[in-house]
Amino acid sequence: MNLNSILSINRTGLNGLQNNLDNVSHNIANANTVGYKGIINSFNELMNNNLTNSDGALGNSNARVDSNTGLNAAGARVDDQVGEFETTGRALDMAINGNAFFGIIGPDGNTYLTKAGNFHRDANKGLIASNGYRVAVDAQVPEQNWPAGDLKVSSDGTIRSGDQVLGSLRLFEPNNAHSLVSVGDNLYLANGGFRAAGAGSSVMQGTLESSNVDLATQMTELLTAQRSYQMNARAASATDEMMETINHFTD
């Protein structure tokens, strides 16, 4: 293995660890964000190169060993574990007990998923998320005609004002929980598609789901990633100095 190969390994390690640091920092920053789902990083080895005795002193001329060529950030997935539930008593705070998500209509007209149920009502009396986007609702009464005041939401998502049924929240389940991708604004895109939620999930009014980020775990991950990054950076610097020394003597 030559020095260029070592530098290449250092480079892939630094890139992967920087990606890990970015995601862990994002998790820590959102530890108190309602309904936030943490990001879990995954890594794997890049293709191995075979070394023989001609590449180094292996002792046995027929011996062959594998030399790892670096680290690959295989991707990041959304942690689908449920956060703790916090009772707020506020009528427009809602959480889902189960695998379902609320539907949010983005500015592009597409439906995104979220666990953040800290809703409000806009000037047209409709339900909106904290980011200002519309909550997906099957309205029996047009939302602009909904009466002012608090709404009652039952466990199946039915929305009432007094005895009048106004509509129901649209709840969704991703076809593959590990296909969720964060798109910002506490919204998730289901790359594997999604379907209407089944009977296994229920809405809890006056309750919010907290972030599922465990700060102690994330701080440990942050320290580990920082130290690994520093070690890779020092190794890259040492390799670069060796190359400069060799070039000096070969000039």
Distance linking N and C termini: 22 Å
- What's the shape? elongated
Number of strands: 21
- The low-confidence runs, each spanning 5 or more residues with pLDDT under 50, are none
Largest sheet: 5 strands, antiparallel
Strand content: 25-35%
Structural class category: alpha+beta
Write up this protein.
By secondary structure, this protein is an alpha+beta fold. The chain is 25% helix and 32% strand. The chain has 2 helices and 21 strands. The strands form 8 sheets. Strands 7, 8, 11, 16 and 19 form a 5-stranded antiparallel β-sheet that branches. Helix 1 packs antiparallel against helix 2 (215-250). The protein is elongated and about 90 Å long. The model has no long low-confidence stretch (mean pLDDT 82).
